Amino acid sequence: MAGRRWDMGATRRVGRAFARHGGADGRTPDEVVTGKLEGALIDWGLYRDGVRDERVNSYTDALDRARHGQGFVWIGLFEPTEHQLAIIGQEFGLHPLALEDASEAHQRPKLERYADTLFAVFKTVTYVPHRDLTATSEVVATGEVMVFCGAGFVVTVRHGEHSELTGLRQELEKEPKRLAAGPGAVLHAIADHVVDRYLEVADAVQADIDSIETGMFTPRGWRNIDKVYQLKREVLELKRAVAPLTGPMRALSTLRNPLIAEETRNYFRDVDDHLQRVKEQVISFDELLSSILQAGLAQLQVAENEDMRRISAWVAILAVPTMIAGIYGMNFDYMPELRLKYAYFVVLGVMASACVVLYRLFKRNHWL
To answer: Distance from CA of residue 160 to its chain's centroid?
Structure first.
């Protein structure tokens, strides 16, 4: 069945199969199905003409109605097991390769087509608030949303605590005209939600970059190099979410597919425009942080050179009294000024005068 059209008799066959498994404890086929998805099933609903049909309170009844062209069913799952995904795959005829991808997190953003079904992977991002940026601060947290979109159904699979689609279903239910466009409208809403979060995170990261750029060009600013490197790693995480999505989003805005109405394609073009903007912003972040990092390294090198000059200057100043003391520390019987009454003070005065002269010379040349 994988990859083929959702056939009209699938509900009856699946219902009979679950009835056989559930007959022992007296549960209905609907209770068996929802029981098998327990822990992963977040929400589901049947939508007809853009309105959620509240009269349908049976999961299997909703599937049957959707298969008979009476709207579409939208099922939301959170970190389902392979067995639970296999149940969904059997019901909707999903391709095994897509199910394998959906069962594993850390997928690359992409769009694939299996017969009449679209499979899209989105990486979600969230900005992690922090008081001060440190060398170990987490700035960008990621999750994943995978969407199976076919004639009469939408299945969303979420991975990670930062993959929430908070309020998205409720917002769409307030726009029945938009939701009436079918499963393609749900796919667009998810893509739009994900890209909007990219924009929010990018703006927050911009504030962090401005702060660290200001700190870098202060005295001893090179001490912030470890923070710059950490922020660059976090921007790279954001880049991995944004950049690979440009191809799939461009395809969705131009794809001729029965699941995506002409008006919905126009909305996808708007999402693609926002995605291009945030992609350029993230690339500029990466380049700017590279420049800041190089400036910090240059500052570090200059600071090291200045420290070496200071050390060299003090060594030169101390070398003069050391040399004089070394000469007069020799055990010769006949040396000048040994028998003078004030020779000791004269030698100390010469040492002090030489040190003062050298100090002023180095100070004038900015070595000290």
So the answer is: 12
**Weakest-pLDDT range from 76-85, 89-98, 184-193, 302-311:** 302-311
Q: How far apart are the first and last CA of the chain?
A: 81
pTM of the model: 0.76
- 276 to 107, 126, 246: CA distances (angstroms): 21, 19, 7
Residue 107, φ and ψ in degrees, nearest 5: -90, 155
How far, in Å, CA of 153 to CA of 74, rounded? Answer: 6
Sheet holding 110-114, edge to edge: 51-52, 41-48, 72-78, 153-159, 140-150, 117-127, 110-114
Helix, strand, coil percentages for the chain (3-state, nearest 5): 60, 15, 25
Model confidence at 260, pLDDT cuts 50, 70, 90, reads confident
Rounded to the nearest angstrom, the gap between the alpha carbon of residue 133 and the centroid of all alpha carbons in its chain is 16
Task: State how far the alpha carbon of 124 is from the alpha carbons of 113, 130, 151, 239, in Å.
Answer: 21, 19, 25, 12
Using 50, 70 and 90 to split pLDDT, how confident is the model at 7? Answer: very low
